[in-house]
Structure prediction request, 461 residues.
Amino acid sequence: MQAQSADSLRSVRRIYVGSMGPYSGGDELRRDLIRYLKKSKEFELAMAPDQCDAILEGRGELWTRGYHSLSPRARKNSDSAEPVYGGYLSVRLRGKDGEILWSYFADPRRITIHELPRDLVDEVVTRLKQEHNEETAPATAVQNANDAPATLRGGGATFPFPIYQDWFTSFHARHPAWTLTYAGTGSENGITQLASGGLDFAGSDVAPAALPESVQTNSDFFPTVAGAVVLIYNLPGFNGELHLTADVIAGIFSGAIRAWNDPKLVALNPSAPLSDLPIQVFHRSDGSGTTYALTDYLSRVNSAWGKSIGAKAVVQWATGKGGQGNESVAADVAATPYSLGYTEFIYAFNHHLNFAAVRNQTGRFVLPDLLSIMAAANWAGDRTEDLNLSIVNSPETSAYPISTMTWIVLPRNLPADKRAVMATFLEWMLTSGQRQCSGLGYAPLPRNVLDRELSAVKKLR
Prediction:
């Protein structure tokens, strides 16, 4: 049977399961995906790529976080101790013409000993079936006109760097004459270069209202995705779920809480084997939108932090060591036992790091994941028509509290030919491009925000 390439998720019937990557656990996850899809009533399983409507491919990985036993005498790797696994499954459903129709990032939301591969696969297939009769973004025509050659330089925030890389590659495939480059140098550096004319556009996680007045006056701001700042930690011997509050996070980064067994940490985590060793703190050294999102959250919830430090992209830290970019902080925490830092969501998985559940406004301890980020974004999108909307510290019950938007900043004096390129890119990013977000752990923008933003993009032409 020769199938046609699907042009929307709704039109997909026959799926071929491709590679889930070269990492440990990838083959097992692929086998489980095939088994689950065989049982599905919504889809048929194709045995070859030329027999399908769409190809499900991606990257999955499983690793051992530690060992668990009910016996206090059990030792690591002993027969009486069971491994506790970590892992993720990032997938994309791609039409045979190359268009990405759907994506998703599944991560474990609970400690799992034996069932993690099946849990990840079940989450992916369940979500795929739920969205099969919906469109997460409207389709757009693939435009491959003879565009006049153009190269645009961008730079700034490292928070959205993975999805921006992905987008610019996909967009270039549709418009080969146009090249968009992006250097992840930190939000502050990107805004500085944009203001001096060194860039055509910048990426910033710093809320537009907190940027220099000259940038606010002379720029347009377009939210691109929602994401999460996560508290990553390297705590040997602890395989549970670390709970943190804004007061404790502020205490750690201000130097008031120095040891893992500080009474405030113990009170939140009474069953955790917290050591008396000092907390090795890592933070950003550069001007960072990730830092801004964290300090904006702390300023809203912890009055002492708000008065003494506030919401800033650059902080004079009282303790800890600095790193340049999200990647550096994640690598430092991964390499340092008994350490804690903060980074964007996807960097934690890339370095096999655990991250904390943070107490939100409703008193719930919430782990960051696609659904808890989307809860924050959807709540804000329903309550404001401002494209500079903040989703930090959402009062939504299921929201992760350190969620944030990230923006592309476009100068109003950009030459007309480059503005036309950016308008075309933004239209694509806000429609078909949104389908690529979830596979990298970013939440797509709410439908009402997308509609308002598409109207704003038309004014660029």
